[in-house]
């Protein structure tokens, strides 16, 4: 009798160990990331598109939502990371590779505030996004320079663009965001082209950032040398799809980044990229 109980106990223990091991192996469950006294930034692999989650002070900021093809992956990723509420969503600009999954995200999560630049698109993704916002009684707040988001103590989060009310190229409507947690600084750029980079430079912002989300998936039409010199990142993150038809990232952009000796991460090669900072050092979780 004693032996049988002991065997039962061993089997139960093994079961528990097995459960812990298997849950730790899942590619999207990151239960051992400490959110306490850290800021965690997830560059979610959405193929050819952008989707970035920032977690700090128990607040969640989502920048873009990836494509409509990747929407299930994004929803699963957020749920696996125990997200139920998004304090802020910023849709940088209304191209499908940035807002394709937005309608689903809005439907699946509690959303407190939603920001987008003042520009419309006649696409299904845009109309679906508007429909989801209406169904939740959410109004679009205008993304423009000097709008700030409150991400709690020791943070600052400021929008740097779009500077103008009208652009020929939709990419230039992209809302760039400078985010700081203690001494760690990040610059998110959407798909700003050289024109918008120059406008941001002209405004005299402090662009120095430890981490740069490289504009427009590493396209040659962005990342001017002057802009890059001002940002001078230690880490450059390129969000792009494997063997994408645009040839992103462009060799010219990669060469500029390599010259800076910064660490380059790419979602097409590295998949989901998670950066953690305590406000001093930044490391990659893998
Ligand atoms: Zn894009």
Structural write-up:
The model is unreliable at about 1-30 (pLDDT under 50). The radius of gyration is 20 Å and the shape is globular. It has helices at about 1-25, 70-80, 95-100, 100-110, 125-135, 195-200, 225-230, 250-260, 265-270; strands spanning about 40-45, 50-55, 60-65, 85-90, 110-115, 140, 155-160, 175-180, 185-190, 210-215, 235-240, 265, 275, 280-285. About 30% of the residues lie in helices and about 25% in strands. Helix 2 runs parallel beside helix 4 (about 100-110). With about 290 residues, the protein is α/β, with parallel strands linked by helices. An 8-stranded mixed beta sheet has the order 6-5-4-3-2-1-13-14, with helices on one face. A 6-stranded mixed beta sheet has the order 7-8-9-10-11-12. Bound molecules: zinc ion. Zinc ion (ZN) binds near residues 97, 98 and 217.
Topology at a glance:
Blueprint: H1 2-25, E1 39-43, E2 52-56, E3 59-63, H2 71-80, E4 85-90, H3 96-99, H4 102-108, E5 110-116, H5 124-135, E6 140-142, E7 155-159, E8 177-181, E9 184-188, H6 194-202, E10 211-213, H7 225-231, E11 235-238, H8 251-259, E12 263-266, H9 267-270, E13 273-277, E14 282-285
Parallel strand pairs: 3-4, 4-5, 5-6, 9-10, 10-11, 11-12
Antiparallel strand pairs: 1-2, 1-13, 2-3, 7-8, 8-9, 13-14
Helix pairs in contact: 2-4, 4-5
The structure holds zinc ion (ZN).
């Amino acid at each position: 009798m004693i032996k049988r109980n002991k065997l039962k106990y061993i089997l139960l223990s093994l079961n528990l160990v097995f459960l812990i091991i298997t849950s730790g192996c899942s590619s999207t469950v990151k239960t051992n990331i400490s959110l306490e006294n850290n800021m965690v930034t997830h560059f979610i692999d959405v193929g050819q598109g952008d989707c970035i989650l920032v977690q700090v002070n128990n607040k969640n900021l989502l920048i873009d939502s990836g494509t409509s093809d990747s929407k299930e992956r994004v929803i699963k990723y957020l749920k696996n990371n125990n997200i139920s509420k998004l304090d802020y969503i910023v849709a940088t600009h209304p191209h499908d590779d940035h807002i394709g999954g937005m309608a689903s995200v809005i439907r699946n999560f509690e959303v407190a505030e939603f920001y987008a630049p003042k520009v419309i698109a006649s696409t299904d993704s845009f109309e679906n996004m508007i429909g989801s916002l209406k169904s939740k009684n959410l109004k679009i707040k205008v993304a423009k320079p000097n709008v700030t988001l409150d991400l709690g103590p020791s943070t600052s989060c400021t929008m740097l663009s779009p500077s103008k009310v009208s652009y020929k190229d939709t990419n230039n409507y992209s809302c760039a965001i400078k985010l700081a947690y203690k001494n760690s600084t990040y610059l998110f750029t959407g798909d700003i082209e050289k024109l918008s980079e120059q406008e941001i430079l002209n405004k005299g912002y402090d662009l120095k950032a430890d981490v740069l989300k490289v504009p427009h998936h590493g396209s040659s039409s962005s990342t001017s040398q002057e802009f890059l010199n001002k940002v001078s990142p230690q880490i450059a993150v390129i969000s792009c799809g494997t063997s994408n038809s645009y040839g992103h990232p462009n060799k010219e952009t990669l060469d500029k980044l390599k010259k800076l000796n910064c660490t380059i991460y790419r979602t097409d090669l590295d998949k989901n990229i998670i950066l953690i900072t305590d406000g001093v050092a930044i490391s990659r979780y893998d």
